[in-house]
Amino acid sequence: MIFQLIAFIIILYSFKNFKKAFLLFLLYDLFLNTNINFLSIPGVPILTVEDVLIMVFAAEFFIKYGTNKGGPYALTGNNFPFKTPFIILTISWTISTVFALVGFAGAVSAYVKQILEYVIMTYLMWRIINDKKDLIFLLRGFTILFLFCGVYELYEIATQSNPLADYETSLVQDETRAIDFGNYEEDEGRGFRAKSVFDHPIGSGINFGLYIIISLFFLMKAKINIKINKLLVMATCLLSLACIIMTKSRGPYLFLMIGVFSFINLKSGKFYRYVFLMVLALIAILPYFSDQLDIFKSLFSADAQEKVGGSDANMRFEQLVVAMSIMSMSPFYGLGFKFLNEMSTAITMGLLGGESIWFQVLPQFGILGILAYLFMIYWTVVKLPKRYKSASIFFIGMAYWLVASMTSVPGMQIYLYYLALILVMKYQMGCFNESGRAKSVEIK
């Protein structure tokens, strides 16, 4: 009941201070997953705490401010930057849901969840986050929370247990619908893989990586003065890096290797000062993780890959063949959400643990979905970086799409990815300057 109680308090507070309550929700959402729900009854779609909060804030926003062209959340000439790709994605999802293999009634709950967590959540973040106070509140809040997540992961490693994950799994009344990836204790060559408060080690590492990227962007590259404890931020970033190592996953390494380019600023003196301090700290802590170097080297070495195990090119090719075979049953718009519920295990077995977002897109959404997702990639790594004159947007977008294409990202908090992009775009618009006046950036 504790998760539901906190959500209820946030909802009540939103009637007094809508913006602050929404920002608190963004912080709280870090801990929410499918197992944390308001409703979990056999035969009834799961209603998660996250989705309920999104619906409440969306309803409250559109009732209070949706038709107000002025007011505190006016667009002031700046269109929602993801409008076009989200419209195209929504069309794809809608058609696939209408003609879903499980029927419209069986697929619509997953469809609504997708709309809420991707489209509505991102739109709300874009409209509501609009000044420097919001940025400082979020940076301070996420620093405290990721510090907690990091300390909790140290506890998880020390005890080889995750009581929070066990408790969250127990919240689902229908045990067959509980999501529990475990910690892969029996992974040959890797051993216990930590995930902190998140669902899965891969997603956990990416979430920590997103914190590092966005924090160091505003600490090292952004030309604004932020009143925040910089030493605490740096310490949390180092702890987050240690947590990435303890996930024993390749995906987060690759994500961070690309993402670091988003905050590199060779013309800034403070960049070199922070790098010097971080290098000293890394020299001090890396000896404690020397036994994990093979996982990092497996990104580049076939021998290291064989030693640590996990998915390889042959496994991905086999999954691609299965995904294309299933897509051939409905090539244009796919089989829709929850198609696995209706297909025999023998056919779909090769898709289990699909190591790429495309192994979901192909059978679920077909050719139409492939084109929609390719357009979103173009939009985030080409269109938006050019429009906002920001290489950082390119590197954050490229980090996500490359990793999501090469492996699955279970446990990743997707809203953090869109939040990172939005914060960089808002910075480029001048929203976080002392004047708070945003430049008009039209997205055509």
TrEMBL record:
Subcellular location: Membrane
Membrane topology category: Multi-pass membrane protein
Pfam families associated with the record: Wzy_C
InterPro entries, sorted: O-antigen_ligase-rel_domated (IPR007016), WaaL-like (IPR051533)
Domain O-antigen ligase-related intervals: 236-374
GO terms under cellular component: membrane
Protein name, per record: Putative membrane protein
Organism for this UniProt entry: Segatella baroniae B14
